[in-house]
Write a structure and sequence with these properties.
With about 750 residues, the protein is of the alpha/beta class. Helix content is about 30%, strand content about 20%. The protein is built from 25 helices and 30 strands. A hairpin with a 5-residue loop joins strand 29 and strand 30. It binds iron/sulfur cluster (SF4). It holds the Pfam family Aconitase.
Length: about 750
């Protein structure tokens, strides 16, 4: 599982000089986030006093992690890059494709059979290109990363939004799309807008029923789901150092739920203890040697209001357990207020299922505290009222909690243990009766609780809480049960009170594991071939996109003029389409099927200009492609907002769309389009959107002189013989124009490695 101690030592060796240079340049003390960011500037990036929330900066992350659903396209692209090996340490984790139904073993076997082709592909690509491969059942990406790879002061990217979990070990860890992962694995710089900084000062100490989860549930209530956008959240103060490393991981994990770029904590004893407990004494020693660079400068924490854009203070000694939900993770209700809040909102209060675990909350500490409550069921003559499930985050945790008797205790209260995988957290929960869509309540210790997220039932009211509180509420079977004040009636009719949870931060006998589920890559992968069946439904090797033909683009058809919101979900839907994420042609059958056609206000219903008939968007575009006719998509404001999935850019490119012309772009989607060799254009005058007519044929002029900062012209030839010439802007720099000319950024990378 080699955690790259040499790489980490190299990062630490370079850190003091880089931090000092940045401190000098800015002329002030630095926050921890700034230190890590400055220490990871790409070698091509000059050191400047970057403007927060404005300047795009190139970074060199230390490592890449990918989960199986997103790794497929990332690795298919990487295979095109022509590199013999990944440029930075990288791992693949098989966790998203396992359905939780019966229990771990059976569910895992079923998933392995059903997704064998995808797993075999990921294993062989990993083997060939030097990528560590974590098999199905090994654990959830973020827990495995925390246990094995995260390190204080490091920077990583991962193809999953909860990559931010590694902030618990003092990293800057950021979720990205597969195209970004591909770039970094190919040795290219990675671009990020210099973030704003939010400081969270934690005073006091958690006690009683309050858990680290309650910190982030409280922060989510304060900042809302958008409040962290474009910002790094830095936690500090005695409350932070009083908390376990895995507790810090939980807090950082749910930073994704407030839209934060990432969250992090300064290096402290809890991190050192965790590194040592997970077999990384050498890294703890290396971190100790540079520890002044692994926290903010003392002046920052003395006067935080001077250095952070926003400051929040939470006294952990007074923090109450929270329940957030339903349907959004920022609707925070302290447990003492749940009775009145549930009644006022008509929320169903009978708890049907309590679910603990997931990447967010399955540390040894979490499980040991939950088990201290489960034990009381027998001790106090109680009966657990709700169903109860456990989803361990890794085989190491599962094996250790089994050895320590925790699973036996859970078994005694009728709990089900699911596979070490995402399962119910990502809708991969085959919950009996969910199809009836009955109104019901569940409580879980995961991170997200949007409608349908856990079991596909839009009427499941999901509330997020700490594993301790979830366990107590499952025992009580009642959402309004406040274990701090309320009693339960046991089987003998006596009123009993649950004792507050207690547990161990780390296993006193150490972690243990038999087979962690790791497959190291071949030292020399050059002889390994990656097999993908040409008849596969789920995987398809990519062909390079063709280079620009060297002329202006003429005679394009208007494919769709999209009206209003057009997110990456409208462009490339998720849900049932997830299984085609490794097959570009098959997933292209969802291209723009959620976009609203301006002319008839319908989705997936547009005019085929060749036949005059209305039909689905992908079929219409395929008809144009079959005739060798290109097309253009017109859109509204913030086109492509939402996720960073590159499928939303690759699908139109694959089907022959040549340009996307919109009022404005979401930044990541605009970059993704450029990377795939598409023209991403914006109206110089937004009112020109109104000039476009349903039967237009379109020319894009000025491409032979495509230059940064110089607008292009687009001619719309209308059916009645008239035309409009529209000026369009673009944000291509020299390098991005080269991507366009070559057909895609990857084509340039490949040429580089071939030459
Ligand atoms: Fe994402 Fe949930 Fe899996 Fe964590 S457990 S990686 S949040 S799906």
């Amino acid at each position: 599982m080699a955690f790259d101690v040499d790489m980490i030592k190299k990062v630490y060796a370079a850190m003091p000089a880089k931090v000092e240079a940045a401190r000098k340049k800015l002329g002030r003390p630095l926050t921890l986030a700034e230190k890590i960011l400055f220490a990871h500037l790409h070698e091509d990036q000059s050191l400047e006093n970057f403007e927060r929330a404005k300047t795009y900066v190139n970074f060199a992350p230390d490592r890449v992690a990918m989960q199986d659903a997103t790794a497929q396209m990332a690795l298919l692209q990487f295979m095109q890059a022509g590199r013999p090996k990944v440029a930075v340490p990288s791992t693949v984790h098989c966790d998203h494709l396992i359905v939780a139904k019966t229990e771990a073993k059976q569910d895992l076997e079923k998933a392995v059979n059903e997704s064998r082709e995808v797993y075999d592909f990921l294993a062989s690509v990993s083997n060939k290109y030097g990528i560590g491969f974590w098999k199905p059942g090994a654990g959830i990406i973020h827990q495995v990363v925390l246990e094995n790879y995260a390190f204080p002061g490091g920077m990583m990217i991962g193809t999953d939004s909860h990559t931010v979990n590694a902030g618990g070990l003092g990293m800057i860890a950021i979720g990205v799309g597969g195209a970004d992962a591909c770039d970094v694995m190919a040795g290219l710089p990675w671009e990020l807008k210099w973030p704003k900084l939010i400081g969270v000062k934690l005073t006091g100490k958690l006690n009683g029923w309050a858990a680290p989860k309650d910190v982030i549930l409280k922060v989510a209530g304060i900042l809302t789901v958008k409040g962290g956008t474009g910002a790094i959240v830095e936690y500090f103060g005695e409350g932070a150092t009083n908390m376990s490393c895995t507790g810090k991981g939980t807090i950082c994990n749910m930073g994704a739920e407030i839209g934060a770029t990432t969250s992090t904590f300064g290096y402290d004893d809890s991190m050192s203890r965790y590194l040592k407990a997970t077999g990384r004494e050498e890294i703890a020693a290396a971190a100790d040697a540079v520890k002044e660079h692994l926290t903010a400068d003392a002046e920052v924490y003395a006067e935080p209001e001077k250095y952070f854009d926003q400051l929040i203070e939470i006294n952990l000694s007074e923090l109450e357990p929270h329940l957030n939900g339903p349907f959004t993770p920022d609707l925070a209700t302290p447990i003492s207020k749940m009775k009145e809040t549930a009644a006022a909102n008509g929320w169903p209060t009978k708890v049907e299922v309590g679910l603990i675990g997931s990447c967010t909350n399955s540390s040894y500490e979490d499980i040991s505290r939950a088990v201290s409550l489960a034990k009381q069921v027998n001790e106090k003559g109680l009966k657990t009222k709700a169903e109860f499930t456990i989803t361990p985050g890794s085989e190491q945790v599962r094996f250790t909690i089994e050895r320590d008797g925790f699973l036996d205790t859970f078994d005694q209260i009728g709990a089900k243990v699911f596979a070490n995988a995402c399962g119910p957290c990502i809708g991969m929960w085959d919950r009996m009766g969910a199809e009836k869509q009955e109104k019901n309540t569940i409580v879980h210790s995961f991170n997200r609780n949007f409608a349908k997220r856990a079991d596909g039932n839009p009427n499941t009211y999901a509330f997020v809480a700490s594993p301790e509180l979830v366990t107590a509420l499952a025992i009580a079977g009642d959402l309004t049960f406040n274990p701090i004040t309320d009693t339960l009636i046991n089987e003998k009719g006596e009123a009993v009170k649950l004792d507050p949870p207690s547990g161990d931060e780390l296993p006193t006998r150490g972690f243990a594991v038999d087979d962690p589920g790791f497959q190291a890559p071949a030292a020399d992968g050059s002889g390994i071939s990656v097999e993908v069946s040409p008849t596969s439904n789920r995987l398809q090797l990519l062909d390079p996109f063709p280079a620009w033909e060297g002329t202006d683009l003429k005679g394009l058809k208007l494919l769709i003029k999209a009206k209003g919101k057009c997110t990456t979900d409208h462009i490339s839907m998720a849900g049932p389409w997830l299984k085609f994420r490794g097959h570009l042609d098959n997933i292209s059958n969802n291209m723009l099927i959620g976009a609203v056609n301006f002319y008839n206000e319908k989705t997936d219903n547009i005019k085929n200009q060749l036949t005059g008939q209305y039909g689905p968007v992908p079929a219409t575009q395929r008809a144009y492609k079959a005739q060798g006719i290109g097309s253009i998509v017109v859109g509204d404001e913030n086109y492509g907002e939402g996720s960073s999935r590159e499928h939303a850019a690759m699908e139109p490119r694959h089907l022959g769309v040549r340009a996307i012309l919109v009022k404005s772009f979401a930044r990541i989607h605009e970059t993704n389009l450029k990377k795939q060799g598409m023209l991403a254009l914006t109206f110089a005058n937004k009112d020109d959107y109104d000039k476009i007519q349903e039967d237009d044929t379109v020319d894009i002029l000025g491409l032979t002189d495509f230059t940064p900062g110089r607008p292009l012209a687009v001619v719309f030839h209308h059916k009645d013989g008239s035309s409009d010439i529209v000026t369009v802007n673009h944000t291509y720099n020299e390098q991005q124009i080269e991507w366009f000319k070559a057909g895609a950024a990857l084509n340039i990378i490949r040429q580089k490695f071939e030459s």
